[in-house]
Structures are given as structure tokens and as C-alpha cells.
Amino acid sequence: MYSFIEVKANDIDSFNESHFKGHIFQSSSWAKVKKDWIPKYIAGHDSSGNTVLIALIILRKIPYVNNYIGYIPRGFVCDYNNKELLIEFTEYLRDYAKSNKIAFLTIDPDIHLRENEVLCDNGEKIKNFLQSIGFNNKDSKNFEGIQPNFVFRLDLPTEGDKEDIKKTVFNSFSSKTRYNIKVAEDRGLSVEVYDASNLDDHILTSFHNIMVTTGKRDNFIIRHKEYFKDMIECLAPHTRLYMIKYSYDKDFNRINEKLQKQTAAKERALAKIEEINKQLSIETDEGKITKLNKKLSDSDTKLKEAERQIEGFNKRISDIEMYKGKELYLSGAIYLAYGGKAWYLYGASEDFLRDAMPNFLMQYAMICDSIDLGCYLYDFRGVSGDLNPENPLYGLYKFKKGFNGKFVEFIGEFDLVINPVIYNMFKYVFPKFKELRNKIRNR
Q1: Are 128 and 94 in contact (CB under 8 A)?
Q2: pLDDT tens across 318-362, in order?
Q3: Distance (Å, whole) CA 4 – CA 196
Q4: pTM of the model
Q5: Contacts of range 121-126, beta carbons closer than 8 Å, 24 or more positions apart
Q6: Average pLDDT, whole number, for the chain?
Q7: Most CB within 10 Å of its CB: which of 66, 192, 284, 325?
Q8: Roughly what angle, to the nearest 10 degrees, separates helices 358-372 and 175-186?
Q9: Which residues pair with 57 in a beta bridge?
Q10: Please, which residues have CB within 8 angstroms of residue 71's CB and are 6 or more apart in sequence?
């Protein structure tokens, strides 16, 4: 037998942070971020008084009716193989929801159903069991759920020298991803990291402006700037803002340095060709003439390659002329680290200078910092589960796949329905309103 009681906010955090299924979305700090929701904190104990389960439930009143919706984000937190515990807690939730006028409760547990498209037997068993005790399951391929149902997750070694770990992880990336990270470094991009101690309004505004650009481009909801400020402050010290900065001077100087090297290579090739032609004009030995012609051909190849490189560098200098004297933020991300796990929560990028590969450098910086923090998991968050190359979201899948994480499908979203009438209204009428609202907000 288990007992369940409502507790104070801080009473759930120790168990949550140390539990293998703990999640920052189940922390009392996350409840502070969700200011428009009413938080409730539940703890479950066994017969010896040991904590075996915690749940952060956030509630929101449904407009025009005296009922609430309830959400337990990426939780509740417990051993999902303990069937007796799940049965008893589900019955408790039913009673709790009825007493508190909650029309339905939604959960989306952090449990893998598939990894790299291979079925996880235990995940399937848990999914089936939750359905058998009264939870309605809903799967999604893209981003229809509250949380993404498909993510990439990168396992990080925790034993050994951290610099060696970083090298090993970097070498595990696809060749294209490694190349793009080096491109970003070569273009002189820099990584800036902010948290509650050094964040100012200028940086926050810069990030939000990029979020607005990204939201309009990719058609997703743009949160208010204050939401991100609250997140960074409320989740301290577990959250950071990463910003990738472009500097024209750095970029120009590096390109110009390469241009000068290729100009020198061109001059050497021309001088060599002139020298060989002089030798050919006086040489009569057939064998030596053959060797000289081979050298001439090699020098001509070097000349053409140098000219090709010079043309490319001159074009790049011309392309960046509009940014002369400027320093610009190209991308940004909200990062979370908690209980040995790290998440890339929000990301944004500008429409210009995408060939400088800022997003690749940003991800690599967050992965390296996760290693420094001793995290064993880095979560890239959502991708589409529809792997058709024609899917508009396929590019996001390819980008994250290049970092060699596991392609994970969760067991999905589950609803415990208490009031079927209100539940059906919310699930089928409200989405139409939400779709219209998004279109208006993103204009």
C-alpha cells in the first residue's frame, strides 16, 4: 500500500533531482516559470515512509467553465515498472481531480518506446499498462503534442579526462558536422554564455529578436521576452543563454589571410611555369622533356587551384562587405542542465550569414559544457518522426542526426479523463482556435 499527499514546493526537489527518471520540468523551479498555471505538488510514500514518487501538477482554468486542465510535464517521477504503485497513484489522481474540478490530466513520461527505430520492450510494456489502467494514449509524428514525441539524445561519457571525452565525442560526429563546426570556428564566430548573474536587457532583446525571426520563418509561437527572462532567473543555476556572435573584422582578416596565401601560391606557380618553359625551350633530351612536361602540368594544376581559391575568397569578401565594421548575433539557445542531464530547450537563428554555420558551433559549445558539468546525457529535443525527405521538418532531423545521438521516440502523451464532455471540447474545439491564434501572432 502506498500513500499520497499534497506537499510543499521544495519537498519534491531532492527526490526528483536524484531519481533516474527525474526531470527539470518536474522541479518546483519549473512551476515558477509557468506563472499562468497553478502548481500542486504530490509526494507518494511506501509503508516505511520512503518517498517513491513525486509529481508536479500544473493547473489552468478552462475559459467559461468552472473546471481546470491538469498537466504533469514529463512525469510523474517514479519507477514505472512498479505496477502496484502506478495503479494506486492513478486512483489517487482520479479522486484528486474530482475534488479539485480537474476535467482531465495529461502526462507525457520520459520513457523511450524506440531507439533508432528499434522497439524498446520495456517502454512498450509501460505504454500498454498505462492504457490498461485508464489512460488515453495519443501519439504524434511532428509537434502536435505538448512536448515533442521524437528527440535526439546523445549519451556522454563521464569517466576520464574531460578534454579527451570532448575529442572522442567530436570524432563521433558525422564528417559533415565536424566540417561545419570547423567552418564556424574558421569564420571567427564566438560563443557567449549568459545566466542569471550576467544577463542584461540588451542580450535578452537580441535573443528575442532572433526568436521572432525564427518563429515567423518556421511558423511557431513566439513567446514574450519576459518569459525567457523568467526562465533564466527562476531556473538558476540550471539554465544558460548561449549567443553566437559574428565579427566582420575577424571574418575579413581570416579570409584576407587565406587570400594572401593563395596569391603567393599563384605567384610561385607562375614563376615555376616560367622557369620550366625556359628549360623546355633549350632542352633536347626526350626523357628530360617528359619530366619537365609533367612538372609543367603539376604547376598548371596548382595555378588553377590557387586562382579558384582566390576567386572564392574575393567573392566571400564581396559578400560580407555589407557587414563591414559590424558585430552581429547570428543564433541563440536556452540550455538547461539538471540531475546529470542537459537539454537544448529553445533555439533561434537569423536568416543571414547561415553559411558561417553558427548553429553547429552553438550545439558543440553546449555539448562541451555538458561534459564539463559531468552530464551523462545531452538532449537535442524535438524532431519530426516523419522521416520522409519531402517533410519540411526533415532538415531539422538531418541537422541533429549529424551529432550522432540516438533517435528516440517516447511512449507518447496520455490523458486521464474525468469529465468527457469538457475533455472533448478542449481537445477538438480549442485546437482550431489555437491554430488561428498562431497565424495572427506570427504575422
Answers
A1: no
A2: 999 999 999 999 999 999 999 999 999 999 999 999 999 999 999
A3: 35
A4: 0.90
A5: 122/81, 123/411, 124/411, 126/80, 126/81, 126/411
A6: 92
A7: 192
A8: 100
A9: 40
A10: 37, 57, 58, 59, 60, 105, 106, 107, 146
Read off the pLDDT band of 49 (50, 70, 90). very high
C-alpha cell at 117: 527505430
pLDDT band at 435 (very low <50, low <70, confident <90, very high): low
Instruction: Using only the alpha carbons of the chain, give its radius of gyration.
Output: 28
Look at 89-103, 150-164, 267-281, 304-318 and tell me which has the smallest mean pLDDT.
267-281
- State residue 286's pLDDT score: 82
Cβ distance 442 to 222 under 8 Å? Answer: yes
Do the Cβ atoms of 54 and 15 come closer than 8 Å? yes
Please provide the distance, in angstroms rounded to a whole number, between the alpha carbons at the two ends of the chain.
Answer: 54
pLDDT digits (tens, 9 = 90+) for 21-38: 999 999 999 999 999 999
The DSSP annotation for 7-43 comes to --GGGGHHHHHHSTT--GGGSHHHHHH-TTSEEEEEE
- Minimal CA–CA distance to 246: which of 345, 380, 177, 349? 349
DSSP for 195-249, written as a single string = -TTT--HHHHHHHHHHHHHHHHHHT-----HHHHHHHHHHTTTSEEEEEEEEEHH
Specify the 3-state DSSP secondary structure of 44.
strand
Q: Is the peptide bond before 237 cis (omega within 30 degrees of 0)?
A: yes
**Grid coordinates representing 106?**
495529461
Q: Which residues pair with 60 in a beta bridge?
A: 69
Give me 67's grid cell: 473546471
* Cβ contact 155:380 at 8 Å: no
What is d(CA 400, CA 318) in angstroms, rounded to the nearest whole number? 31
Q: What crossing angle do the helices spanning 162-172 and 358-372 adopt, rounded to 10°?
A: 140
Cell numbers standing for residue 62:
478552462
134, exposed or middle or buried, with CB in 10 Å at 0-12, 13-18, 19+? middle
Cα–Cα distances in angstroms (integers) from residue 425 to residues 50, 100, 251, 420, in the given order: 40, 19, 55, 9
pLDDT band, residue 440 (cuts 50/70/90): very low
